Amino acid sequence: DGVTEVLAHRSDNLRDKFMEIPCSEDYDSHKRFAGCTPRRCGRGVTDAVITREEAERIRRIAERGLALGGSDGGASILDLHSGALSLGKHFVNLYRYFGEKIHDIFTEEDFALYRDVRQRIQQRIAQVFGISPSAMYLTKPTFFSRMNSTGAKTTHDEYWHPHVDKVTYGSFDYTSLLYLSDYSEDFGGGRFVFMDADSNKTVEPRAGRVSFFTSGSENLHRVEKVQWGTRFAITISFTCDPQHGIGDPLLA
């Protein structure tokens, strides 16, 4: 892997750490939106936006939802927006599959907390990159992930391959991850790795930590395989294109 530097240790309590890097050309092949499309690129980590207690409450939402299903392999997802839930080797629509029973699992308070957390992350990203939060739109996929050391059963379980979000999902302009569990305490492996030409830069997850970055090739990344325990996180993604915007989930 060459040289590895730790951008954020689990034991750090980071108010704001930001690393600026030159933007890739990925944004040129998409429509540009003035005042939003990245002109300044980089990556940041903060432990000052979401509290550990809030992260624990959010994790419980993920645990309750994922307890209804779960993949046969090492990676399970729960998407409260579309209703997608891993079940065996496939996905089901949580809302259709469970119908009215969903009210026994989630509350209005759960969804209000989810919205509040998403808005604070959006505001922080906008502030750091010097754009208006109203110019950014939540986009899909935005989802909870649960990863453990079970071997992959389908390609959906192979989360460790290097990838570029803008290439994988054309709508992404800014990506964020809110970690809901602690590296080396709740799980081993599973660090987030930015793969730069000269070195790898890792972020060690800690509950409440937000890692965010521009979604182009300047931030090629991967997640290490989880070796033991269970890693919870939520990926929250933003686009500058209103046509690709999605609403917050509603407990219908």
From TrEMBL:
UniProt domain Fe2OG dioxygenase: residue ranges: 140-242
Keyword Nucleus: no
Highest taxon of the lineage: Eukaryota
Keyword Metal-binding (UniProt): yes
InterPro entries cross-referenced by the UniProt entry: OGFOD3 (IPR039210), Oxoglu/Fe-dep_dioxygenase_dom (IPR005123), Pro_4_hyd_alph (IPR006620), Pro_4_hyd_alph_FE2OG_OXY (IPR044862)
SMART domains, per the entry: P4Hc
Keywords on record: Dioxygenase, Iron, Metal-binding, Oxidoreductase
Co-factor requirement: L-ascorbate
One annotated GO molecular function: L-ascorbic acid binding
GO CC annotation: membrane
PANTHER family documented for this protein: 2-OXOGLUTARATE AND IRON-DEPENDENT OXYGENASE DOMAIN-CONTAINING PROTEIN 3 (PTHR14650:SF1), PROLYL HYDROXYLASE-RELATED (PTHR14650)
Protein's UniProt name: OGFD3 protein
Native source species: Sterrhoptilus dennistouni
Gene behind the chain: Ogfod3
